[in-house]
Amino acid sequence: MNITERLHRILATLPEGVHLVAVSKFHPAERIVEAYNAGQRIFGESRPQEMAAKAKVLPKDIEWHMIGHLQTNKVKMIAPFVSMIASADSDRLIAEIEKQAAKCERKIDILLEVHVAEEETKSGWDIEELRAYIASGAFENMSHVRVRGVMTIATNTDDEEIIRRDFERIRSIFNEFKPLFGEKFDTLSIGMSDDYPIALEYGSTMVRIGTAIFGAREY
After folding, report:
1. pTM of the model
2. Buried-most residue among 45, 46, 116, 147 (CB within 10 A)?
């Protein structure tokens, strides 16, 4: 089965209104072109240098999503063109996104990455720290950042009950914050190649799928 066939098979399983981020990190531009020609427009990358290099040579109507941990000194590399930064996991990073977006005279969509998994190595906000940050009114002074929702990566486990617990928790967090941000807060980004069918049960509006589309990483 080729990329086009795998992509269409996955799209057929997604309810209306659920967006697919094709995770193209570590795959060459040629494979992205195949997915693009099959109709895919949203692609996810985890390294700013790789994203910037691909953006230069690939169609300009691609929506690039930064889905990996982002260092503050790398924000300027992607601020001129990135559509969404899905891994906004600290006050310093969000402040830098606001700064670089202002320089580019753009408004950049972000997702608040929240840590709910059992692995301590996974990035994301501690929920109490995030609550305090939002309550501080920090976003009231930002006109170049638009908070669209929350994102998390579930615990890497075969135990479905743990995965469901993670998704239930992030859904609760999404519902808690939505009244604070209004209608623009519309994205619950959960679910990857192995667990996205479960994520859909918990109201995911954006799934991030790589291996099931592109196969094993090429580099």
Report:
1. 0.95
2. 45
